[in-house]
Amino acid sequence: MSTSLQRGIASFVGQIDGPIASFFTSCVHCGLCADSCLFYTETQDPKYTPIHKLEPLRRVWQQEYTFWGKLMKKAGLSKPVTDEELAEWEPLVYDSCTLCGRCSLACPVGNDIVYMVRKMREGMVASGHAPEGLKGATQRAIELGSPMGVNINTLRAQIKHAEKETGLTVPMDVEGADYMMVLSSAEVAEYNDIIGAVTRIFHQAGVSWTIASDGFEGTNSGIQIGSSDLAAELVGRIVRAAERLKVKYVISPECGHAYTALRWEGPNLIGRPYPFKVIHIIELLDQLRSEGRLKTDSVDETRMTFHDPCQMVRRGGMVEQPRNLLHMVAPNFVEMSDPGLQNWCCGGGGGVSANERANPLRTRAFNRKKAQLDEIDATTIVSACSNCRTMLLDGLEHNHMPHEVVGLTELIAEHLADDKEGKAP
Amino acid sequence: MDAQELLIWVRGAGLQIAAAVFVLGMSYRMLHLLLIGRKKSLAEARGSEWAGGLRTMWQRSFVLPKLSPRGRFTVVAGYLFHLGFFVTLFFLSQHIALFRAVFGFGWPALPRGVIDIAAVLSLGAMVALLAHRLVDPVKRLLSDYQDYLTWALSFLPLLTGFMLLREIAFEYVTLLTLHIASVELLLIAAPFTKLAHMFSTFISRWYNGAVMGFKGIRT
Fold first, then answer.
1. Digit-coded pLDDT (tens) for A16-52
2. Mutation target among B206, B217, B219 for the A interface, most CBs of A within 10 A
3. Do residues A414 and A201 make contact, with C-beta atoms less than 8 angstroms apart?
4. Disruptive mutation site among B58, B67, B207 for chain A (greatest number of A CBs within 10 Å)
5. Which of A76, A114, B78, B185 has the fewest CB neighbours in a 10 Å radius?
6. Within a domain: residue A424?
7. Whole-number percent of chain B with pLDDT over 70
8. Is residue A244 one of the residues assigned to a domain?
9. Nearest CA distance, A12 vs chain B (angstrom)
10. Does A424 score more than 50 pLDDT?
């Protein structure tokens, strides 16, 4: 057995906890999870059945955690997990799973299948079976500070641009601010209107905020590839910046896995609770709305729909908040089928977008979103995750679909009431 | 040992052994699942683990997402099988008499006609589920020997019970022996096979719901 395989198996054994043991004990092979997975529904290939993607982990559980499994292993009657098998499973664990969590809601015995995939990836990384594209993204995040290679200079240029456009100052490294805004890589690189948008919104609402020059990037490739060590390093940068600036809140950007990493996994990754709270930008905007601090004075008559980002909605619980905000500015808002918790993933979450090998499969999986969009005649898709936005644009382009894609925060900022009427700080 | 003596052993010592294996084995298995435990999250909760966990334990039996035709078949046949199985197990007068003899209390039985319908529906659903397992590409890929073994172990008590009530094919003593023996096999295998899902399902649902509840997600 190779050292890397040994490391992988040891990691699998270490990842198995009460929930995973219960899930494998309970699975009755009913196959209902298949219908909940867009990689199965769009290909009808049984190998994309969610629980099947966990087969190597299941065997390790059986051989290490059950009476008969241990007995069979001792007698040499069980089939050991091999390097070849893990190599074969790599595309199933990475290319055909966006960690969207739809299967976890479908399982009749209650198995949280995506919880297991997330943990299985730890063993895949340890055994050297992670996709090159995702390895590269993670390496860039660790070495350069961002999977897309953006750095503080890129950010400073964008900030200068935003300041010129808004006539307002973007507060950098302000100690004692209430909120510290974190951005996603794609927001710094492509969707940089977000900087001007939050600057104007926070100015109107009178929010005391800042951006940290040493902790502005929230994208967490470590979570996606399944390396807790690297994920901890990436979260740690934000935590250290927030502690240095003594902020009360850290704002998670419109980026699904950044939110999961920062809000739910972060304290466990670094091994201690945070001295600050984490709030998603959409959660904060909805809070400002309910407090009457977020005011809009115009609407967009365009027929708009909302694409629910999985980590924010299904795995993050924010169903109402984006809709409350949309109702302020989009009178012709229309829901797609299966809205909210049951929404279908864009096809590129959980590291799939960083994994070039998965592109053809991802394009096929987008047919699900296409079908959802074809049912309604919306012209604009609003979302609140920069990765979803890129994946939507990509899929729309591929299918020659004319929809426009916008970010929710920018949309709200476009319709902000005249700043003079707002509550200036 | 003649047929009478065999029956006496099967319904006496045999049943006691099987029941003991079931109770001890299942307790060990479930306790093990609970004792493995999990790390407590250091993140700030937005909702209650307990509320989410308990809600999912209950709700997942009734609330299912939109289903495809193959999913609908699995759910309908699956429900029929389980319901039929429980109705015959808990509401046949002979079974209630046995519970009363062991535990000292019982409850009203359902009429034989209802039991017959439940048993036939349950058997039919099981046959349909087995056929589906053999032809559906997803189920075929997922299935291993245990899926067929546990199918047979669940099917036999129902079948022999149904035959016993009508004395089909064999005489009463033989059928009763076969029926009790098939139940014993089921009891002995349950803790060590996927039949353990009869209890572990609720632990799984609790964990799934607790994770969601912690995050304040209303499923």
1. 999 999 999 999 999 999 999 999 999 999 999 999 9
2. B217
3. no
4. B207
5. A76
6. no
7. 100
8. yes
9. 15
10. no
Residue A69 C-alpha, separation from nearest chain B C-alpha, in angstroms? 10
- Reported ipTM: 0.96
Six token digits for residue A258? 């950044």
First to last CA, chain A: 64
Q: Are B195 and B26 in contact (CB under 8 A)?
A: no
Q: How many CB pairs under 8 A join A and B?
A: 169
User: For B153-181, what is the mean pLDDT?
Assistant: 96
- CA distance to partner chain B, nearest, from residue A241 (Å): 18
Is the predicted pLDDT of residue A419 greater than 90, yes or no?
A: no
CB spacing of A19 vs B38 below 8 angstroms: yes
State the CATH number of the domain containing residue A378. 3.40.50
Give the model's confidence band at A1: pLDDT under 50 very low, under 70 low, under 90 confident, else very high. confident
Do A273 and A324 fall within a single domain? no
The SS3 call for residue A332 is coil
CATH of domain B3-23+66-198: 1.20.950.20
Which chain A residues touch B68 with a CB distance below 8 Å? 35, 41
A356 within domain boundaries: yes
List of chain B residues whose C-beta atoms are within 8 Å of the C-beta of residue A22: 33, 200, 203-204, 207
Determine the Cα–Cα distance for residues B143 and B154; give it in Å rounded to an integer.
16
Confidence of residue A148 (pLDDT cuts 50, 70, 90): confident
In terms of CA atoms, which chain B residue is nearest residue A277?
B44
* Same structural domain, A50 and A122: yes
A168 and A269 in one domain? yes
What the block records as the tokens of A425 is: 């700080």
* Residues of chain B with C-beta less than 8 angstroms from the C-beta of A264: 41, 43, 215
Nearest CA in chain A to B36: A18
pLDDT of residue A337 exceeding 50: yes
Min distance B77 CA to chain A CA atoms (Å): 11
Domain hosting residue A16, numbered range: 3-130
**How confident is the model over B130-144, as pLDDT tens digits?**
999 999 999 999 999
DSSP state of B42: -
User: Which two structure tokens, joined as six digits, stand for A336?
Assistant: 């797609």
The verdict on A111 and A60 lying in the same domain is yes
Query: Same domain, yes or no, for A397 and A326?
Result: yes
Q: Name the residue among A29, A49, A273 with its Cβ closest to that of B147.
A: A29
Query: In this predicted structure, what is the pLDDT of residue B1?
Result: 78
Are residues A139 and A283 both part of a single domain?
A: yes
Task: Domain count for chain A, please give it.
Answer: 3
CB-closest option in A34, A268, A315 to B42: A268
Average pLDDT (A154-166) is 96
Asked if residue A297 belongs to a domain, the reply is no
A201 & A282 share domain: yes
Residue to test with chain A: of B73, B80, B130, B138, most A Cβ within 10 A: B138
Coil, strand or helix: which one is B63? coil
Q: Extract long-range pairs of B155-164: CB within 8 Å, 24+ residues apart.
A: B155/B123, B155/B126, B156/B182, B156/B185, B156/B186, B157/B182, B157/B183, B157/B186, B158/B84, B158/B85, B158/B88, B158/B119, B158/B122, B158/B123, B158/B126, B159/B123, B161/B88, B161/B92, B161/B119, B162/B116, B162/B119, B162/B120, B162/B123
